[in-house]
Automatic annotation (TrEMBL):
The active site is at 335 (nucleophile). Catalyzes the ATP-dependent amidation of the two carboxylate groups at positions a and c of cobyrinate, using either L-glutamine or ammonia as the nitrogen source. Pathway: Cofactor biosynthesis; adenosylcobalamin biosynthesis; cob(II)yrinate a,c-diamide from sirohydrochlorin (anaerobic route): step 10/10. InterPro entries: CbiA/CobB_synth, Class_I_gatase-like, CobQ/CobB/MinD/ParA_Nub-bd_dom, GATase_3, P-loop_NTPase. This is Cobyrinate a,c-diamide synthase. It comes from Candidatus Dehalogenimonas loeffleri. Residues 253-444 form the CobB/CobQ-like glutamine amidotransferase domain. Residues 6-192 form the CobQ/CobB/MinD/ParA nucleotide binding domain. Comprises of two domains. The C-terminal domain contains the binding site for glutamine and catalyzes the hydrolysis of this substrate to glutamate and ammonia. The N-terminal domain is anticipated to bind ATP and cobyrinate and catalyzes the ultimate synthesis of the diamide product. The ammonia produced via the glutaminase domain is probably translocated to the adjacent domain via a molecular tunnel, where it reacts with an activated intermediate. The record marks 438 as: Increases nucleophilicity of active site Cys. Coiled coil: none annotated. It holds the Pfam family CbiA. Belongs to the CobB/CbiA family. Keywords: ATP-binding, Cobalamin biosynthesis, Glutamine amidotransferase, Ligase, Magnesium, Nucleotide-binding.
């Protein structure tokens, strides 16, 4: 399978990977190329910018949460109609899971997908030392091919000449572009990272400005050439995550998607569709009820704490979701969705806002991060997405605190990194699952089918 592809990597977080990868995707789309974006690791916010820039949903690639063959299957599946794939890295090139020798690092994803790497160097405050840095990255792992370098935060034409010459002379790697210091192109941030693209309502022409800059400072023809030199890609011969044959529509699933709830692994949505779910979107902020004919509900993560008044005031939507749970419809909520289902959310100023009230206790925003990292959990109770005894891998990232569930209602026993009970399974027939744990349905081929099966029986 021929898939032109590149990985956009960095020496560390904060070197400009997302801005540059977003600009490259947009500039290539303006050339009428079908660009398929991917993001290494479990991030939700960066994929939003890449999706808008490329005009195609960005998908996460993660070799800690997913077996390598599952990553390969997803990569091939989502590249069926693309001209070129761009994989944005995470953190520094070789930074991965703390205890498993770089699993799910950008370098690991590059090796699994057999992709050439474009390395971004922030060269502010350095000259020829940038060549030593590039040399070290190029030789650290001989199985990772750094095929080009982009320099960021270049101070002047003479600065560029010094750094570019040192790298190309001492490393033998071409510098294919550079960006000067330009604070106006910095993406906005807040407590979970960048502000999601869906919230920006950006009418400032940011992408056009960024695309123009990339077009003028990065050799896109050379980048396309490097991507085209990637070897043949060999996905697994037999699909595991997707059904072997097309499935008929078996249920109608309502998925919360608006400015408050937009953290989803897009592969989850596509896997649900593939197993027979008709996906219909709704807004807990703006809509008055669940869509007609709903047979299951999926409420992902996001920033409900930023839209507390709107969520609190929308009593008809809260009652609609309550009624769905009472009627036995399968409902799955992750992180922000969990917060929405509690008795209420206490904001950063200590003010309480009433939420749906299906889960016990108040969810309180904290002044510091509560959990961040990969998580492995054992399923304690059968739920809309899993069976008792399954071992699941996912990710947690939240600033709020909710009291630990009791043994009668707990969804999971977390076994890594810290043993604890997590999440809730409640409702008639255990039809409600809510947890801080974000799950990628590609990690276990049973989950998407299980969810659709439960909805089809509701």
């Amino acid at each position: 399978m021929k898939i032109p592809r590149i990985v956009i990597a960095g020496t560390s977080s904060g070197v400009g990977k997302t801005t540059i990868a977003t600009g490259i995707a947009y500039a290539l789309k303006r050339r009428a190329l079908k660009v398929q974006p991917f993001k290494c690791g479990p991030d939700y916010i960066d994929p939003g910018y890449l999706s808008i820039a490329a005009g195609r949903d960005c998908h996460n690639l993660d070799t800690w949460m997913l077996p390598e063959d599952h990553v390969k299957e997803l990569f091939a599946y989502f590249n069926r109609t693309s001209d070129l794939a761009i994989i944005e890295g995470v953190m520094g090139l070789f930074d991965g899971h703390r205890a498993s020798a770089g699993t799910s690092s950008t370098a690991h994803i590059a090796k699994v997908t057999d992709s050439p790497v474009i390395l971004i160097l922030n060269v502010a405050k350095m000259g020829q030392s940038a060549a030593a840095l590039a040399y070290g990255f190029a030789h650290y792992d001989p199985d990772v091919k750094i095929a080009g370098i982009i320099l960021n935060q270049v101070g002047s034409p003479s600065h560029l000449e010094t750094v570019k010459g040192a790298i190309e002379q001492n490393c033998g790697i071409p510098v294919i572009g550079s960006l000067a210091k330009n604070a106006g192109l910095t993406l906005p941030e807040r407590h979970l990272g960048l502000v999601p693209a869906v919230e920006r309502n950006d009418n400032s022409g940011f992408l056009d400005q960024l695309g123009d800059l990339i077009e003028s400072t990065i050799d896109l023809d050379r980048l396309i050439e490097i991507a085209g030199q990637a070897p043949e890609f060999y996905p697994p011969e037999t699909p595991v995550l997707f059904p072997a044959d097309p499935q008929p529509v078996r249920c109608r699933m309502a998925v919360a998607k608006d400015e408050a709830f937009n953290f989803y692994y897009q592969a989850n949505i596509e896997l649900l569709r593939a197993w027979g779910a008709e996906i219909t979107y709704f807004s807990p902020v703006a809509d008055t009820s669940l869509p007609a004919g709903t047979e299951g509900v999926y409420i992902g993560g996001g920033f409900p704490e930023v839209f507390l008044k709107e969520l609190e005031d929308n009593t008809s939507m809260k009652e609609s979701i309550k009624a769905a749970v009472a009627a036995g419809l399968p409902v799955y909520a992750e992180c922000g969705g969990l917060m929405y289902l509690t008795q209420g959310i206490v904001d950063f100023e200590g003010q309480s806002h009433d939420m749906i009230g299906l889960l016990p206790g108040l969810c309180r925003m904290q002044g510091k991060l509560q959990r961040l990292g990969y998580t492995e959990a054992e399923v304690l109770k059968e739920s809309p997405v899993a069976e008792r005894g399954q071992q699941l891998r996912g990710h947690m990232f939240h600033w709020s605190h909710l009291d630990t569930p009791d043994e009668n209602s707990a969804a999971y026993h977390v076994v890594e990194p810290k043993k604890q009970l997590e999440g809730f399974v409640l409702g008639p027939g255990n039809n409600l699952l809510a947890s801080y744990l974000h799950l990628h349905f590609g990690s276990d081929a049973r989950m998407a089918k299980h969810f659709v099966d439960r909805c089809a029986r509701s």
